[in-house]
Amino acid sequence: MVSKTTQNYLFFILFLLFIACSFIFGFAPGMYMGKNFYLFAKEMLLILPPAFILIGLFDVWAKPKTIEKHPGDASGFRGYIWSILLAATTVGGVFVAFPVANALYHKGARYSLIMTYLTAASLVMIPMSIMEATILGVQFTVVRLLVSLPLVVVFSVVIEKVLN
Fold first, then answer.
1. CA 158, 139, 85, 50 torsion: positive or negative?
2. How far apart (Å, rounded) are the C-alpha atoms in residues 21 and 138?
3. Most CB contacts within 10 A, which of 69, 110, 136, 161?
C-alpha cells in the first residue's frame, strides 16, 4: 500500500501536470487555477519564512512564567485583552496565528485565551481594520469591533467550558 505522504506528492505532481497541460492546450479554467496557485504560493513563500522565524524566537524567548501570568490561568480578564492585542499585531492571518496559538498552548495559556487569540486574529488585524475603516467608514469598523469582540470572548469561554 502507498503511504499517505507518497499519495500527497503524487496528487501534487498530477496537479502540476494538469496546470502545465492547461497552459499548453489553452484550457482557461486550468490556466486560471495555475495563476491563482502561483500567486498564493509566492505570497506564502514571502510571508511564512520570516513568520516562522519570529514564532521560533517567541517559542524560545517567551518564558512559561510570562505566558502563565499574562494569557494564563492567573490573568483574569486582562488575558483577553492581551490575546486581542497580540492578535491585532499578528501579520499573515491564520497561517501565522495557528503556530503562535500552538506555542501559547505549550507555554501554558488558557484554552479560552487561545480561542480568543485565534478568532481575533481574523477579526482585528490592524492593516485590515484600517482598510475597512477607509472603505466602509470608521463608524462601521468601530461598531463591528464593539459587537464582535465581546462575542469572541463569550464564546471562547463557552468553548473552554465544553473542552474541560
1. positive
2. 48
3. 110
Amino acid (1-letter code) at residue 99: P
Whole-angstrom CA distances from 149 to 33, 71, 81, 129, 142 are 36, 17, 10, 13, 11
Q: State the Cα–Cα distance between residues 107 and 58, nearest whole angstrom.
A: 10
Domain limits, the chain: 1-50, 62-163
CA distance 39 to 35: 6
| DSSP label of 62 | S
- Could you tell me the CA-to-CA distances from 139 to 98, 127, 147 in Å, in that order? 30, 17, 12
pLDDT in tens, 113-129: 999 999 999 899 888 88
pTM (2 decimals)? 0.73
